[in-house]
Specification:
There is one protein chain. 30% of the residues lie in helices and 20% in strands. The chain is α+β, with helices and mostly antiparallel strands and 199 residues long. Strands 2-1-7-3-4 form a five-stranded mixed beta sheet. A hairpin with a 2-residue loop joins strand 5 and strand 6. The longest helix is centred in the last third of the chain and has 18 residues. Bound molecules: zinc ion (ZN). Zinc ion binds next to strand 9 and helix 4. Zinc ion (ZN) binds next to strand 9 and helix 4.
Amino acid sequence: MSVLNTKVLVLNRSYLPIQITSVRRAISLLYQDIARAVDEQYRVFDFASWADLAADEDTIGLVNRAIRVPRVILLLAYDRVPRRYVRFSRFNIYARDRNRCQYCGRQFPRAELNLDHVVPRSRGGTSVWENVVCSCHRCNRLKGGRTPTEARMRLIREPYRPQWTPFMTETFSLRRYKEWMPFLSAVDAAYWNTELVEG
Ligand SMILES: [Zn+2]
C-alpha cells in the first residue's frame, strides 16, 4: 500500500480525535492551511515548518523533496464534537456486551451468541438498548419466553445505551500508530470508564 493511503488521526481544535483520514488528504489539508501537523510533543506545525523538519524513516516524496509523514493533524476550524449517537445494531450490541452471554457470563465466538429480549416481545418488551442483550444458545433456550425473574436467571449487568461513538469503535479495529497514542488514551479512558460507570 502506498504511504499516501495510510492513516492519519484528525483532531479538532480541542485535541479530541474526531476521525481518521489518509495521508494524502492530511497533506492536502495541511497545504491548504486548514490543518496543522502535530508531533508527539504536541508541537504544532504549518506546512512550511513541517516540511522543514528533518525527514525520518517514514517519509513521502513531494515534488523534489522528502517530507515526514504526519500521523496526527489538528483542524483549525472544526469544533464539532463526535456524534453521541450509537447505531443500535447487532455488531454494537455484541461490542457493548463484549461477546459475553449476559446470563452465564461466559464469552463466546459471535456465531454462538444471539440476541435476547430481556422482557420478551410477547410480554411487551421492546427492541431498545435497555432490553436487548447477548445470550448464548443454551441460556437462550433455558430462558425461553420468560422474564429473567420467572426463569430465575440473573443478568450479569443491566443493559444500557452505550456512549461511545462509531469513531471509537472504528479505531479499535485499525492499526494504530504510536503517534496516535497520546491523543487516543483519553478516548480509551472514556470508553472503558463509560462501561464501568454504566454497568
Ligand atoms: Zn449463557
